[in-house]
Design brief:
Number of strands of chain A: 0
Structural class of chain A: mainly alpha
Radius of gyration of chain B: 18 Å
Largest sheet of chain A: none
Oligomer: heterodimer
Number of domains of chain A: 1
Number of strands of chain B: 0
Distance between the termini of chain A: 49 Å
Distance between the termini of chain B: 53 Å
Strand content of chain B: under 5%
Radius of gyration of chain A: 15 Å
Largest sheet of chain B: none
Largest interface: A-B, 47 and 49 residues
Shape of chain A: flat
Structural class of chain B: mainly alpha
Order of helices and strands of chain B: HHHH
Helix content of chain A: over 70%
Number of helices of chain B: 4
Shape of chain B: elongated
Helix content of chain B: over 70%
CATH topology of chain A: Helix Hairpins
Number of domains of chain B: 1
Order of helices and strands of chain A: HHH
CATH class of chain A: Mainly Alpha
Amino acid sequence: MLAAAMLIILGSSAVLCLYRIGRGPTTPDRMVGIDILGVLVVGFASVACILSGRDFVINIALAWALLSFVGTLALAKHLEGKGFDE
Amino acid sequence: MSSWLGTVLWLVGAAFDLVGCIGLVRLPDVYNRLQAGTKCVTLGTCLILLGTALLADCPACSAKAAMCLLFVLVTAPTAAHALARGAKVSGVPLWEGSVVDEWDATVDRGGERS
């Protein structure tokens, strides 16, 4: 019951993010959607760790948090028209 | 006790995530969407991670969830700030109902913001 509720709520949140990524209308809108979808996946992976009973799944949440942050910063720098090391 | 608390934290966090994503779809321009999405989804994901730290069986999982919580709490607002700055520099206009644009006022006064 709890598992179904969590999966439905987080899944519909992810669908709303995907709608914003697909719809646009500008490039920063899509980047905002990607950023927020990354944060959602972190929470989803930690829920999946408890629900599946496999301990290693929490590592996915940790790695996804790190990589999503770096990816969003790279996208933001690209929007400003700079390279990543400036 | 901690199982009940973790379950409640999970459900409240998921509700915050859903409200943030509804704001991401409904609000009028990129800055409003960034505001709603980042605030609500950061709080919701932090509550979910806190619930995971309480619900986990092994201490290592609790520690990793707590580390993840701290990291999300620090990096999500940073990433949102960088995205808003990038959107403004790349020329995305504000919604026509916005009342003030302090960025343009600062640039017109001599531009201490580069």
